[in-house]
Specification:
The protein folds into two domains: 2-94, Arc Repressor Mutant, subunit A (Orthogonal Bundle), CATH 1.10.10.2690; 98-129. Helices cover 68% and strands 0% of the residues. It is mostly helical and 129 residues long.
Length: 129
């Protein structure tokens, strides 16, 4: 893990949510519904989370538009992502994110697609039995 250690040492205050939060949307509508399932959050907070997670708005633009504090938005996102992972686990699923060299992306995509295809094929077989 020397590469990761060097990466972390190069960052004075490693807040990974800030490094990768504003790329684009990271959830579709159904994933968002699952992520907030069972949470008691206000309508305004729900809209903020929706803008960031589904529409892909940057946190800064949401802060500028709503006047919410950066810390409040970070706390909201952490709460929702924690709940999302818990909801997935209850359904026998996991959530994974990768940071890897760009040239490996097609390889990882192909592996994930192949494993998903095999999983769905096996699931179909087991339901027929």
């Amino acid at each position: 893990m020397p590469i990761m250690r060097n990466f972390l040492e190069a960052i004075e205050n490693p807040d990974f949510s800030d490094l990768f939060a504003d790329d684009l949307s990271c959830m579709n509508e159904q994933q968002f519904k699952l992520a907030i399932k069972g949470l008691r959050i206000r309508d305004r907070s729900r809209e903020v989370a929706y803008r960031i997670l589904v529409k892909g708005d940057s946190r800064q633009s949401v802060i500028d538009d709503t006047g919410m504090q950066k810390a409040a938005i970070s706390q909201l996102m952490s709460k929702i992502m924690k709940n999302f992972r818990e909801q997935l686990t209850r359904n026998g699923l996991v959530y994974k994110e990768y940071v890897l060299p760009e040239k490996l992306e097609p390889v990882i995509d192909a592996v994930e697609e192949e494993h998903l295809r095999n999983y769905l094929k096996e699931s179909k077989k087991s339901r027929r039995s």
